[in-house]
Amino acid sequence: MDYAPETENFFVKVYAVVRLIPKGRVTSYGAIAKYLGAAGSSRMVGWAMNGAGKYPDIPAHRVVNRSGLLTGKMHFGSTTAMQQMLEEEGIQVVADKVQNFKTVFWDPLTELGPS
DNA sequence: TGATTGACTATGA
DNA sequence: TTCATAGCCAATC
């Protein structure tokens, strides 16, 4: 195989989790990676999101880095598109950063459970 | 085939 | 607190 089938499954899992992010909430790449049992491979989550652009159902704008910084804003075509979408959901974004990050943070491990 | 890159995170100075 | 480095794994050049 040119690629590991399990890798593809990992990407699918990432998409599934991102889709579960409730409106007005955000999560981090590391949180998703950890939830999928791939803690430390947070970059793979980011890479998965790279392919998520093909899926309009994936609210990638709700995924930010551990600091709440909109690191992937550049992949939305416009640097303000991501921020605007978040604000549209009631998330305050200032200087490309999510305000009250701890409050709007959505941890799949906590919300969905470790099981 | 080998080296570099990247939507990250953690640790150390 | 801010900056630099290491680890991570897959995709791309």
Characterize the structure shown.
- This protein is mainly α and 115 residues long.
- It has one domain (5-104): Arc Repressor Mutant, subunit A (Orthogonal Bundle).
- The chain has six helices and four strands; from the N terminus they run αβααβαββαα.
- It has helices at 5-20, 29-35, 42-52, 81-88, 101-104, 108-111; strands at 27-28, 63-64, 93-94, 97-98.
- It has a two-stranded parallel sheet with strand order 1-2. The protein has a two-stranded antiparallel ribbon with strand order 3-4.
- β3 (93-94) and β4 form a beta hairpin.
- α1 (5-20) crosses α3 (42-52) and α2 (29-35) packs across α3 (42-52).
- The longest helix has 16 residues, at 5-20.
- It starts with a helix and ends with a helix.
- The model has no long low-confidence stretch (mean pLDDT 90).
- The structure holds a DNA duplex (13 and 13 nucleotides).
Rough shape? Answer: globular
Largest beta-sheet details: 2 strands, parallel
What's the end-to-end separation, in Å? 30 Å
Mean pLDDT: 90
Sequence stretches where pLDDT stays below 50 over 5 or more residues:
none
Q: Order of helices and strands, N to C?
A: HEHHEHEEHH
In the CATH hierarchy, the third-tier topology is known as Arc Repressor Mutant, subunit A
- Tell me the name of the CATH class: Mainly Alpha
| Total number of strands | 4
Overall structural class, as computed from helix and strand content, comes to mainly alpha
Radius of gyration: 14 Å
Q: Percent of residues in beta strands?
A: 5-15%
Number of separate domains: 1
The fourth-level CATH homologous superfamily is Winged helix-like DNA-binding domain superfamily/Winged helix DNA-binding domain
CATH architecture title: Orthogonal Bundle
